[in-house]
Amino acid sequence: xxxxxxxxxxxxxxxxxxxxxxxxxxxxxxxxxxxxxxxxxxxxxxxxxxxxxxxxxxxxxxxxxxxxxxxxxxxxxxxxxxxxxxxxxxxxxxxxxxxxxxxxxxxxxxxxxxxxxxxxxxxxxxxxxxxxxxxxxxxxxxxxxxxxxxxxxxxxxxxxxxxxxxxxxxxxxxxxxxxxxxxxxxxxxxxxxxxxxxxxxxxxxxxxxxxxxxxxxxxxxxxxxxxxxxxxxxxxxxxxxxxxxxxxxxxx
Length: 252
Hints:
Layout: H1 16-22, H2 24-35, H3 41-62, H4 67-81, H5 91-105, H6 109-131, H7 135-152, H8 159-162, H9 167-195, H10 205-226, H11 230-249
């Protein structure tokens, strides 16, 4: 394995950037409860670095309103993930992409491919969401984006985790959790995203309620599948509320 020497990015992330890092804690709890294996601290650290790097890239992509400029930037991201050398004008984006490459290089070949494909899928769905004009299709794309991002974290788990008899249950649970988290974010952000021209669908009640329906449906499936004890549900809920509070108080 390559020696892990993280690059230094801007310290003390705030708001949504910190939320992407916080994903690591509830994720480790879910893995432990389902697989009955504790997640090593170095993997949790990698999850935090990965989450922050993805946030920086996603935020930069989100701020590009012009479709052609955004597609050019997305093409550079895809080329970089495919192994090509690219230079990004934003220093934080450059460091974030190098972090993802470093993390990817520490993985087994199959897991490296899985991680790259997951990120490429997220990028392509994100672009579809920005251009979508059908509210119901937007919710579907939103859930797919959330599950693809959540599943990308599985690339960091060692072989023995993936061979566990309960691994498919974990995969199903993370799919639902990713959907819930993304739907909740989009429900809360929809008015701002629309006013900033990041999406084309207006935040009318009939449109936002579609996200609520998705949240309830996927939440039910998540808790039914994981069968978490009440104290852990409370812990996960507290973490989620902290994330939403930070997002509101530290709006980018």
